[in-house]
Amino acid sequence: MSPSKEFERENENIRTTQSIHLIQAVLGDEIDVKTIHGTVQLKIPAGTASETLFKLKGHGIQKLNAATKGDHLVNVVVEVPKKLNKREKELYEELAKEAGLDIKPQSKGIFG
Question: CATH number of the domain at 8-98, out of 3.30.70.20, 3.40.50.40, 2.60.260.20, 2.40.370.10?
Fold first, then answer.
């Protein structure tokens, strides 16, 4: 059997990476996480930083000679949008202004 591309095993624990949108990280959300035992809901608290590690207790592999299971560790990566439409850009600019940030737009280079 070849190794899984989704799941990484560490003894009795399983490790995965899950991407979330910047807005989910800021406001908080509940996301579906695929485990080896099926899909589980994971609560993402408001203000979650990228590379935060969450533990789904007991969603790993059965421990040898024991009734307990390891854990499923979820590394959450916050995705920052690369392209914004006009309305999204306006909303982010409003948020920056509300936060008191003096954002200086990046130039598009010497030809832009």
Answer: 2.60.260.20
